[in-house]
Amino acid sequence: MLCCMRGVAFVPALLVSWSSAAFIISYVIAVLAGHIEPLVPYISDTGTKPPESGVFGFMINISALLAAITMYIRYLLIEKQNESSHFVRSSCNMFTLCVGLMGCAGMDIVATFQELAVPSVHDIGALVAFGSGVVYITLQSIISYKSCPQWNTYFVCHIRMAISVISCIAFIPMIVFASKISMTKIDWTPGEKDYTYHFMSAICEWTVAFGFIFFFLTFIRDFQRFSLRISTEIHEE
């Protein structure tokens, strides 16, 4: 199916399918191994202990790479469209790309430094990943509106902005509730101290994470009409 897609639409499609699989597979393995409770764990909880930690780290690192490639192609696409329409400053487009790449770096940190092994570094990576991601999709939503109606439909723009707003709203309580948790653990059970904070923060975290996935899903149509060509020139002296 991915190979049959026009243009470079297979890139965001692969990102969405791979990232969804990364979350689901590590969750299923962690639950079946009895390492976490099945009711709304943190995403990082599903990749803390082996064997799921290896799967989680590998797949999230690949997701970060695919996200970086998708963001760069999106940057090139906007630059190409901007040549004729001039709907956004090139510096703004570059800034948006840099913010997105920061989020990818945060994902790599989350995948490399596990929650229980190096919690402070892991938490910083998660904050960078989610914070930069929310800013990135918000900026992309604004750019999408500026490109209307030539390069985007208002329907797609409304969907992107709705996802951005929901992600922004979920990101704030995710941080607030997480800051109130007084212990670092993964085997939470109802009735424990700080369980409510953990539960609410985890719901918000999953909301933001899948907000990113659904947002990149909207890139598929844009990428269908864009192809990359690599040209080589040989100069004789």
Automatic annotation (TrEMBL):
Signal peptide: none annotated. It comes from the Eukaryota. It is found in: Endomembrane system. Its main location: membrane. One of its GO terms (biological process) is regulation of autophagy. The chain crosses the membrane at residues 7-33, 53-73, 94-112, 124-143, 155-177, 197-220. Keywords: Membrane, Transmembrane, Transmembrane helix. GO terms for cellular component: endomembrane system; lysosome. Residues 8-225 form the CWH43-like N-terminal domain. It is a multi-pass membrane protein. Pfam families: Frag1. Belongs to the DRAM/TMEM150 family. This is DRAM1 protein. It comes from Chloropsis hardwickii. The gene is Dram1.
